[in-house]
Structures are given as C-alpha cells and as structure tokens.
Amino acid sequence: ISCSDVTENTYVLLLEWRCKGQCSENGKETLVKFTRGRGVTKQRDPRFVLDQERFDLNLTAVRTEDAGEYFCLVNNKMEGQDRVKLAVVAPTEQPSRPLVTGFTSRTINLVWTKPPQS
Fold first, then answer.
1. Distances (CA, A) of 22 to 6, 35, 48, 70
2. CB 3 within 8 A of CB 23
3. Which of 34, 44, 91, 94 is the right S-S partner for 15, CB 3.0 to 4.6 Å?
C-alpha cells in the first residue's frame, strides 16, 4: 500500500502506518512505526512490512481480520491524506487455480475455479 503523503521531496523523520476497522486489533491502530536513524521501532505483526525506501506498507498472508482502512501519518501529522480500504473476502472452500482478471494501482480482481468434487 503506497503512502500518498510521501513524495520524492518529503524528508521523513517519523512515519506511522495505522488502520481502522476490523484490522485495529482491540483498538490498537498502529501497525508499523518508523523513526529516521533508528529504522522500524514498532511492528505489530511480522506480516506488516515497511519498505524503508518508499515507505509503502506490504502485507503478507492476508487474513479476513486485516480488512479495514489503512493510512500513513508522516512527521507527526494528525490525519493521513488518503485512506486505502482493504476488503478481504474469503472463499468458503479452498480455491483452485486462481486467475487475475483485472487490476489497477490500488486493486486486484481474482477469480478461481471450484475445486474438483471428491
């Protein structure tokens, strides 16, 4: 997920990725915290990885409880410029042969075939 508050001209001293919604575990919104000179000083889960060059947030092994609005705060700003809404829809059965049917800079559409009946 790209942090729209960071441009090529932004000098980042402090950066924090947060989420609101199902992803804010017991009201804990902070996912990753970065401090210039110290690197990542807080990481809620190893699945949330900060790209320290571009300050993008990468999620691995996405779960249904990761759904929510993600945003970054740069240099102690109180509000993020943009929020990215992540909706996670889990299949009722294990997918078979996933196929990408479309994508944009912020979304990806997948379809899959039904698993063979045993």
1. 26, 26, 15, 11
2. no
3. 34
CA distance linking residue 31 with residue 69, whole number of Å:
12
Burial label, 70 (beta-carbon count in 10 A; 0-12, 13-18, 19+): buried
The token pair at 83 is: 């929020």
Strand partners, 72: 17
End-to-end CA distance of the chain: 39
Q: Are strands 14-20 and 68-74 parallel, antiparallel or unpaired?
A: antiparallel
Q: What is the pTM of this model?
A: 0.74
Q: At 33, which amino acid appears? A: K
Dist CA 40 CA 34 (whole Å):
4
